[in-house]
Every structure is written in structure tokens, then in C-alpha cells.
Amino acid sequence: MGYLRHIQQCNQYQKDLFIPFLIDNRCYGLAHKDHVANLLNWPEVFSENATGLHLNPALDTAEKRTAAVNPIMRSLYKSDVIDSWVGEQYSISTEFQGPTVMLLERAAVAFLGVKGYGIHLNGLVRKPSGIFVWVAVRSKNKPFWPGQLDQIVAGGQPEGIGLIDNLIKEAAEEAAISKSVAQLAEFKGEIHYCSQTHRGLNNDGIFAYDLWLDEAFTPHNTDGEVDSFQLMPIEEMARITETTDEFKDNCNLVNIDLLLRLGIIDETHAEYTDIISSLYSKPIIELAETLGAS
């Protein structure tokens, strides 16, 4: 067991099963070869050669690409190739807030292995006995990671809304945190990971925030995505993270980041150096270089 295994689990993929996904000969992600086979049923949009999966260069604007690709993804969802549909559009770029080359349905982001983003909020309480953290128990009806532990608030980062506005929206929906309180959240940094799943490649970035809450506050869910909340000592959250798989996998990364910043994981920990070097890397850069895509 240990913290490092969570980071490793969120950064594993079989290189030989993925090929670069390129737009105008620039790599935007890594597509699973099985997914490529499906996409080649639309040769007017997708093609493959020795360098990877290409979008038709005649689709030379973000609007044209969006109009061509999203109906294909919808068709693949209707035929059960893509297993869910969210109805949110993600901006596709090589970096956050970089030039948008197209908009893509959230559920198809992993299918093409392009970069997706989300916000995670640590809900913290300071008591005389120490620091406590609010932990959400995900609804058992959620299609992914049902019943597992999560941050008090977390959500994807869709097109058309800024980070803090998205955090305020998600905080109201997931934990009934008022706008006046949520906007006090402090941005603490980014975490990037790249993990192979049955859906493709989770090539994602997390924006981590801390929010110190009044001891009298109790969160409650309003959107049906959380079954309950638990307020636990930070040391208990650390124990669960280090010794179990009870947290949703990418939530472990946010926990580890918090524990590092609070000094609970420090230089005396046997894995400290490896945790630091692996948690804060940006794996997609390494992937693109490894595969010779640029």
C-alpha cells in the first residue's frame, strides 16, 4: 500500500495501444487503437497514417471541426461505443485556456485522449483538536465510482465558464455552499495525470482549491450526486488514502497534494521524493515526446 501507488495508478497506460491524435499535424491527445477503428468509418473526417490519427485538414476552423466531430461522437454513443453522454462541451487545446481548436462533448474527451480539466475543492475546518476535512460519499447511482469517497466538491471544467464561477456553481449544487463563502476558496495549484481506462485515456488536469469552513456549517447535496458527507480528522483522511482504495482514484491525488502542503507528508516519509517528483509532473508532454508527435 502507500501514497505512491495511487499516483502510479493514475499514470499508467500501454503505449503500444495508443496513437497520436493530430489536428494540423499537432498532437492534441492519444487515441486508443480500438477507437481509431471506429472513427475510420467516417473517412471524410478522420484518417490514419504512420504518424497517427488525423482530422481532415479541410476542417480548418474550430466551428467546422466541432460541427463534424460531435455528431460522430453522438452516433458512437447511440451505438454504445461511448458509454455515457453529459451534454457539456469542452474546449480542446494543448493547454488550459489555449487557442480552442474545437469543442467536444465531455464524455468523448477520453475517447480521443485529449486534455480535460476539472476543479476539486478541499472543505477544511479548524478545531481546537486539529484540522478536519469534509469528505463526500458519492451516490451509489452514479455510473462511475459509485459509493466511493470524494472531495466535498468536484466537477468538470466545461467551455464558457471561468474556474471560480464553475467552483461556485458546483459548490452550490453539490454541498449547498453559498456564493459568498465559495468565492473565498483559495487556488492551490494544478495536478496532471494520464491514465488508461475502458473509456480511453484520462489525460486530465485538476485545479485544486482549499476552502476553510465555519465549524457550524454542515454541507448537504442538492443535485443527487452525493449520498452523504463525513467530517473526519485530516489524519484519518491520510490513513484512508494511504492504506485503502476508498477514495475515487483521482481524488487520492488531491488528498496527497493537501497532505504535502499541510506537512503531514514530509521529508521523513519513505516515499517523499518519489511522491513529489511524480505528483506534479505533466505526463502528456512526456507521452508526445515518446511517440515522436509534436
CATH architecture assignment of the largest domain: Alpha-Beta Complex
The CATH class assignment of the largest domain is Alpha Beta
Low-confidence stretches: none
As a whole number of angstroms, the C-alpha radius of gyration is 20 Å
Global mean pLDDT: 94
The CATH superfamily label of the largest domain reads Nucleoside Triphosphate Pyrophosphohydrolase
So how many helices? 10
| CATH topology category name of the largest domain | Nucleoside Triphosphate Pyrophosphohydrolase
Secondary structure: number of strands: 13
Helix content: 25-40%
Strand/helix succession: HEEHEEHEEHEEEEHHEEEHHHH
Overall shape: it is globular
Question: Which helices and strands appear, and what pairs or packs with what?
Answer:
Blueprint: H1 3-9, E1 18-23, E2 26-32, H2 33-39, E3 46-49, E4 52-55, H3 62-78, E5 89-92, E6 102-105, H4 109-112, E7 115-127, E8 130-138, E9 149-151, E10 153-156, H5 163-175, H6 179-182, E11 186-197, E12 200-212, E13 226-233, H7 234-243, H8 249-261, H9 272-279, H10 283-290
Parallel strand pairs: 1-4, 7-12
Antiparallel strand pairs: 1-2, 3-4, 5-6, 7-8, 7-10, 8-9, 8-13, 11-12
